[in-house]
Please model this.
Amino acid sequence: MRVGLLGAGQLAGMLADAGIALGMKHTFLSPDPDSCAAPRGDFVCGDFDDVRALTRFTDGVDVVTYEFENVPVAAAEWCADRIPVRPPVAALRVAQDRLAEKQSFQRLDIPVPAYAAVNSLDELHRAVGRHGVPAVLKTRTLGYDGKGQVVLRDTTADSLSHAWDAIGRVPAILEEFVPFERELSVVAVRALDGAEVFYPLNQNWHREGILRLTVGRAGDPRQDLAEEYARRLLADLDYVGTLTLELFEVSGRLLANELAPRVHNSGHWTIEGATTSQFENHMRAICGLPLGPTGQPRPAAMVNLVGSVPDRELVRRIPGAVLHAYGKSESPGRKVGHITLTGEEDEQDRFMSRVARALRHAGEAGIADAIDPGGADALGRVAQFAPEA
Model:
């Protein structure tokens, strides 16, 4: 079977690695001639709206998928008129518009932070008057890794005008600033026959809007509720593939933040830490194969490498650590790799110390100091460190 991937970055590369192990072949489409996934299959360099490039891309392909949610809907629709596209195009439409996303959550009785649509500076003034500050102003489209967002801390005319200018004066939403206790995400997979599997909850820590650390949380008390919310989305979208729901925990409640209709950064630990990785299960789902088990047999975590890749020998000296370098050029704020870490069931203290070592190599000394030397309360201490303005 040949799988077409819209996009050819690191997520497409890891999907292809999983597909190659299953005997699949791959074709990628990307406008970037230096795409890091390109060596893993046939590569078409072209814009997503280039019909000639799309025609070459789909030639001989059995199913199309995508690695990121900002693929133009028109390109996915063009492909869907000819061959199956999984996940469905409807999932792209919802995920690309924060207002539509919030409205979908509410329709499915999935709680969300208070929000308001904002289409002008006057509407921003009125929304702030209703909801107060602190609040977060977000563009409705094309935002990721903290881009297209401004935190509002006062209601002066100058501050609101500056925020409106900063996001480009485009349609937006204003969300209440959530004083969360934990940031969580659940990775779910739905097969062509409707079978569903869920991975253990991820506990996540961000800095500057970019994910820095994820710890797999097998047995977390919020697992069942997170799964229920994800299950509603899977059914509503008639979904096939891997889906990630990002959540805030506040006083025992879970509030939905964002939907990602794809494999997700917070699920990278599953490559070494779960029985079947999120990447393999995505490829199994879209190709009509049975899904694999999603258990987490031992402690597992993932440290993002943002801006640069540390010395490989330093990483190799950490027991249970595996370095994944994406082959991308290094630059500030760019995800260039990640480190997965696994341990043994009875070594939580030593495991968290190893995670701290990896964080320091990744330039995340603040989070590292919060969890080292580990111990039973390490995750509690890092939770106190993590919420950011």
